[in-house]
Amino acid sequence: MIVYRIGRTKYSNDLTGEGARRNGGRWNHRLTPCLYTSQSRSLAVLEYTVNVNVDDIPRALSMTTIEIPEKGILKLSIEDLPGDWRASPAPASTKEFGTELLKKMEYSAIQIPSAIIPDEYNLLLNPLHRDSSSFSIIDVTDFVYDVRIKMT
Asked: Is a pLDDT exceeding 90 seen at residue 96?
């Protein structure tokens, strides 16, 4: 399976989940590593957009394409998620839910509906899982963020 992520170019080859470990995210508490990816480039752009302030968008961004094994993916539906999973800012319930799944180490990836477009999916990659060594970066390209997306 191919997944995508947008981030600072200096971290484009990092598969350790260090950024999410340091900062936390919708589906993980701080100190729990995780790689946030999307099933399409366009969803990766939308996810990045809702999580960044226009003044904080760096000039050096990259789109990283990652191949992950099809086996070992937990596929979740909306019915599996906490009732407030789409709330903004991300509620404690989603952080607890995702952190618990990541720490169980049962799955190398968790496919989860996007809070922006619930019919599309993000994949949370678990860099601590025994199969994470099979995650493979297959492409890194410069990404120029079009700030018109953030204009009001």
From this structure: yes
Contact criterion met (CB below 8 Å) for 37 and 114: no
User: Considering its fold, how many domains does the chain have in total?
Assistant: 1
Segment 104-119, tens digit of pLDDT = 999 999 999 999 999 9
Q: How far apart are CA 17 and CA 131, in angstroms?
A: 15
How far apart (Å, rounded) are the C-alpha atoms in residues 65 and 57? 20
Exposed, middle or buried: residue 119 (CB in 10 Å: 0-12, 13-18, 19+)? exposed
Spatial contact of 145 and 61, defined as CB atoms under 8 Å apart? yes
The 10s digit of each residue's pLDDT in 25-74 is: 999 999 999 999 999 999 999 999 998 888 889 889 999 999 999 999 99
Residue ranges making up the domain that contains 141:
2-149
Distance CA 97, CA 93 (A): 6
Q: Model's pTM, two decimal places?
A: 0.94
In angstroms, rounded to a whole number, what is the distance separating the alpha carbons of residues 3 and 65?
A: 6
